[in-house]
From TrEMBL:
Source organism per UniProt: Glycine max (Soybean)
InterPro entries: START-like_dom_sf, START_lipid-bd_dom, START_lipid_transfer
Transmembrane segments: 7-28
Listed name of the protein: START domain-containing protein
GO molecular function list: lipid binding
Record carries keyword Transmembrane helix: yes
Superkingdom of this protein's organism: Eukaryota
Domain START intervals: 100-290
Keywords assigned by UniProt, alphabetized: Membrane, Transmembrane, Transmembrane helix
Gene Ontology CC annotation, any one: cytoplasm
A Pfam family it matches: START
Amino acid sequence: MDIITDLAMFITPLWIAVIVGVVVGWAWKPKWAFHPKDALLKFRSPRPSNPQNDTAFTFSTTSSSAREKDASASASASHLVTEYDLLHLWKLVEEKDGGPAWIQMMDRSTPTMRYQAWRRDPESGPPQYRSRTVFEDASPELVRDFFWDDDYRLKWDDMLIHASTIQECVLTGTMMVHWVRKFPFFCSDREYIIGRRIWDAGRIYYCVTKGVPCPSMPRHNKPKRVDLFYSSWCIRAVKSRKDDQLTSCEVLLFHHEDMGIPWEIAKLGVRQGMWGAVKKFDPGLRTYEKQRASGTALSPCARAAKINTKVTMDNVRSLENTISDLLETENQDSSDKPGGRNIPKLLIVGGAIALACTLDQGLLTKAVIFGVARRFAKMGGKRL
């Protein structure tokens, strides 16, 4: 027991020093230290092609060349968020995405709002969050505009310190926006380039927002840009807990991002600050509703929220079937390739060993044989 006590007294200060050193080192790391954006690339979902014109624009020009330029920019904005993103959000809502099970974190209520939250940890990438918020006596259209209105969000969301529109498509309502969010004192502020779009499936609104590339917006040391970002909602009417009438509004939110801080620390911060941020939703929504009722002019973002792409659930399901058929076709094509290209690794390496053992040409010959076998094994593995 004396030895164990001495070891504990010796090890405990060391662990405390290590933890303090990690936190302090992360907060004040020098510029030449490892930058996590390179590690994020393997976790990023496939992106559409980069927009041809990533600068802000308007549609009030009169010359034909300017109109063509604006039309090109509008078309590029419309491809930032596509039907594949709609399908992904629909699968999340219907719990058909194939991810791990959700673990409940929170269940709280106020007289006019109920909030539930879940978390799950995928095999790769940051923690993912799912939440369900139900507002009493609120329409889906009002809630949709409330969350989309960046001008008004600056008033109730104290974490958002800057929001501006980079691109906008007047046909689909797709937007590219620039956000800067405030983080705690030990972290620098974070910058986001977000593509977003809304689909209307019969007053069920699928609102997709995700990080997109923007070469025209240069990176800076501060604020630090967040590349991996996904935050999307499904907004729809549900029965009220008071009278079972469709007078309440449900918001299903799916969110994950890599903020550039250790994920365990990020999870702790989310757990501690979640309810403090969420309880501002309801007062902000009620004030927004009063302003809209008083006839206050709509902001550009609120006007864009009303430009939706009409879709039906049959369209979404057909899109799912189309993608499944394409994947099956690709798999069939890969399986129909000549068998000589899919030589098993074991056969290649085994043949090389047998050949090397039968030749008495020295170490160099054997090394060449094993090197060639290793190369073919890697090539065969890529095609399997």
